[in-house]
Write a structure and sequence with these properties.
With about 290 residues, the chain is of the alpha/beta class. The protein has a single domain, classed as Spore Coat Polysaccharide Biosynthesis Protein SpsA, Chain A, CATH 3.90.550. It contains eleven helices and 13 strands. The structure holds 1-O-phosphono-alpha-D-glucopyranose (G1P). The site of 1-O-phosphono-alpha-D-glucopyranose has 15 residues, from strand 11 and helix 9.
Length: about 290
């Protein structure tokens, strides 16, 4: 079985749900406490052994490319000022030479189309997709848990977790083969993108972490538009289920969706509280703010 070495990160979206914050900076660069949201996603994938990162970008996303590059002027200044700890941290966060590729999605045609743009860069091997809107707080990292499951069952794997019935229509939703299946690996009989609440096959939503086989690309290339008039990854995966195995994987951890303002606030607060050095002080700050009279 081939190892999952490459990850696709679709970062072309406009971030309209968090405007005006995203008018001139990519939403992936908004801080989640002390680092840009995208850093958590890259760290999650690196912890799973991913060696190459393929960013599917769009216009005005240059800040992401700059962020993963070395910043010589900054590093020289920090060196002169003996800021060794900061320098070490920047060094740790930098990607190794040649480990990042950038390809542009030229039109906003949907997630399936964004993944298709990475076809040549991925080549003929299994790969991960991580949606940077979703930050997953988990140890081992969500993708590391998925690659461990992949080593057991192979095929294709999508991370899922349960959401209240009123939220299913915002997500891709899977149909488990056996109702009430409680284990972490769930056999699936289908999946559907943004189903109406009444016809959703379950309350297990796709979390935005995938391990996929390269045969998905041939299907994405011919995929008709689906929900929202977009080329949906979920629809191509549903077709691939005809010839390959798919498992849903209930990871141990918690996801934070940074896709809208209040969910972003939740992610920011949760990651501040979970910070290894500053978490305790962050809690005191948040409690003090909440205790103030409006
Ligand atoms: C995308 C996927 C959906 C998934 C969701 C996770 O939807 O199409 O299947 O459940 O991400 O956040 P989007 O949020 O881009 O509408």
């Amino acid at each position: 079985m081939k190892k999952v070495r490459k990850a696709v990160l679709p970062v072309a979206g406009f971030g309209t749900r968090v405007l005006p914050a995203t008018k001139s900076i990519p939403k992936e660069m908004l801080p989640a406490f002390d680092r840009p949201a995208i850093q958590y996603v890259v760290d999650e994938a690196r912890a799973a052994g991913v060696e190459h990162f393929i960013f599917v970008t769009g216009r005005n996303k240059g800040a992401i490319e700059d962020y993963f590059d070395r910043a010589y002027e900054l590093e020289t200044t920090l060196k002169e000022k003996n800021k060794t700890a900061l320098l070490e941290e920047l060094d740790r966060l930098c990607l190794p030479p040649g480990a990042a590729s950038f390809v542009r999605q030229q039109a906003p045609l949907g997630l399936g189309h964004a993944v298709l743009c990475a076809r040549d860069l991925v080549g003929d091997e299994p790969f991960a997709v991580l949606l940077p809107d979703v930050l997953v707080h988990a140890s081992p990292s969500c993708l590391a848990q998925m690659t461990a499951a992949y080593a057991e069952v192979g095929g294709n794997i999508v991370a899922v977790d349960e959401v209240p019935a009123e939220r299913v229509s915002s997500y891709g939703v899977i149909a488990p083969k056996t109702a009430g299946d409680q284990g972490p690996l769930i056999e699936m009989s289908g999946m559907v993108e943004k189903p109406p609440r009444e016809s959703a096959p379950s309350r297990l939503k796709i979390t935005g972490r995938y391990i996929l086989q390269p045969e998905i690309f041939g299907l994405l290339a011919t995929q008709a538009r689906g929900a929202g008039g977009e080329i949906q990854l979920t629809d191509a995966m549903q077709r691939l289920m005809g010839s390959q195995t798919f498992h849903a994987f209930r990871y141990a951890g918690r996801d934070y969706d940074c896709g809208d303002k209040l969910l972003y606030l939740e992610a920011f607060a949760a990651l501040a509280l979970a910070h290894p050095e500053l978490g305790k002080d962050a809690r005191a700050v948040l409690e003090a703010v909440l205790a103030r009279k409006p």
